[in-house]
TrEMBL record:
This is Transporter. It comes from the Bacteria. Keywords: Membrane, Transmembrane, Transmembrane helix. The chain crosses the membrane at residues 37-57, 69-89, 109-129, 136-158, 178-204.
Length: 209
């Protein structure tokens, strides 16, 4: 009598095991969408809503909130989002070794370098611009880095949803910059904030399936 552990798998059983392992590997390499997308969606929904209430659509605030207070809400929310996302990336990289892990580390450094560079550029150019345009410089520059790095991440890990989300971010950001400060804040809050939350939850449900 042959033990279950020693039984040779049929071709159908081997195919099923391969598919299960492939699905699990893909899930690990792509990370938890709730950690990679939802925190940024919440941060942008809160932060850019505060900026929209400050700027309004006609240049008059809808709420008695200063630009610095609105920016403070955005930066605090983004700090929390960055921390949560970093945890997700670290958790993802613990499951892999070698080249994939190295790519993840370099990708993380690219995020840091991009954000530092945008900050330096914005600090240098902000005094030359009107108050509203300063906010647009900070917001548009930051979202440019986010868009390009999401597209780059999608290319690195062959993750099409991540690539398309980066492209969506770039498109919304470009349209908002062309339309002006108030509409940029509104579009970012609704289409990127709400969109990232919806995308993260949808991808998580699809990943579980």
């Amino acid at each position: 009598m042959v033990d279950d552990e020693e039984r040779v798998l049929t071709p159908e059983e081997m195919l099923r095991v391969i598919e299960e392992q492939s699905h699990a590997t893909t899930k690990w390499l792509h990370g938890d969408p709730r950690l990679l997308y939802v925190p940024w969606g919440v941060a942008w929904l809160l932060g850019f809503s505060a900026l929209f209430l400050h700027y309004g659509l006609d240049g008059r605030p809808y709420l008695a909130i200063t630009q610095m207070q609105a920016v403070g809400v955005l930066l605090a929310a983004m700090l929390v989002a960055g921390t949560v996302s970093a945890y997700g990336i670290v958790k993802m990289n613990k499951l892999v070794r070698g080249d994939t892990s190295a790519r993840g580390a370099m990708y993380g450094y690219a995020w840091l370098a991009g954000m530092v560079l945008v900050t330096i550029i914005a600090i240098r150019l902000s005094p030359l611009l009107p108050a509203a345009e300063r906010g647009l410089l900070w917001a548009g520059g930051s979202l440019l880095v986010v868009a390009l790095l999401y597209m780059l991440g999608g290319a690195i890990w062959l993750n099409w949803p991540m690539f398309f989300i980066g492209g969506w971010t770039a498109g919304v950001n470009a349209l908002g910059v062309l339309l002006g400060t108030g509409l940029h804040a509104l579009l970012t809050a609704v289409l990127l904030g709400g969109g990232f939350i919806a995308a993260g939850l949808w991808l998580w449900r699809r990943q579980r399936g």
